[in-house]
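writing this on my phone so excuse typos. first protein, seq and then structure
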Amino acid sequence: MNQAPEILILEQALAIGRIHRQALGDALDDLRLRNLKPADLERLSKADRRLLDQFAYRYTRLQDDMGAKLMPAVLRALQEDTPSLSMLDRLNRLEQLGWLPSAEEWGDLRRVRNEFAHDYPDTVDERFDRLHLALTAAQRLLEILVEFEHKAQQCFPDIHS
């Protein structure tokens, strides 16, 4: 059976999300095992730097790809007329449709991500606090992605997962 182009695009966006989910989940697991302390941030080993880089990269990519690919793909698959809508309007529409728990929460997660990725606090304690906010936000982002995956399976039973 041939699938509509909108469903194929949604499948592709979900597949990209799953790749990021696995890698980000691995990084989060490894960071929990590593149990970094504030003082560790002053003298990171090569392995710790790589782990933090992997976390930051996948966290950033997952949120970017969800916002730029997955969310628009969901709206297109639902036959929503959204090309002229702003990102905030798309988020609000996804919330109205029951796909996104909260457009405001998404904005908060985005803010945490931007602060983590682009700001470099002066003190180790501030960097450590920012890291922990990012870890919590990344975990929530993964939960939201899983909710999207489940919802896609419910709404589009022919979708390949």
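second protein below, same order as before
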Amino acid sequence: MNNAIRLSEKWFVRALWLISLVFAFFLIGLGNNVVGDLPQVEAELSLQQFMDPAAQALKQQQDAARNNRLAAEAALDQTELKRTGALKEHEAARATFDNWVATRQATGRVDQDAELRAHTSAMDALKAKETAASRGSEAERQKLLGAQQAEQLAEAAMVLLREAA
């Protein structure tokens, strides 16, 4: 009889161990779910929450300055392209004119003086076109410089607000 009690006691202990292991796995799973959900419980803090309300206006100013800079860069590219085209056109016409003048001097024909004046005035017009393109390019560079400086000032003010926040 004593053996029968011992056998049932052994199975009872084994059942208790099994129940405790199941309970342990349940608690581990529950703990993982609770810890996994913790980041979703609290709201994340951002720098924007601590910034001065004036920062929004400054951000808009900074965006406008960036847009102005981009527009100035695009306009400068266009004027540089025009200036380069005018410069090449003038150089090509200059080479043609120099060849024509050398030919005229070699032939010594006086009846081509009117044609010489026409070529000279055409060269002057091309040089004026090149000069105007250079002036336009310089004006666009000025606009770009102003836009870059405005953007840098807005960024510096924004950095100060970020540091304060």
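The first helix runs from residue 2 to 41. thats all i got for now
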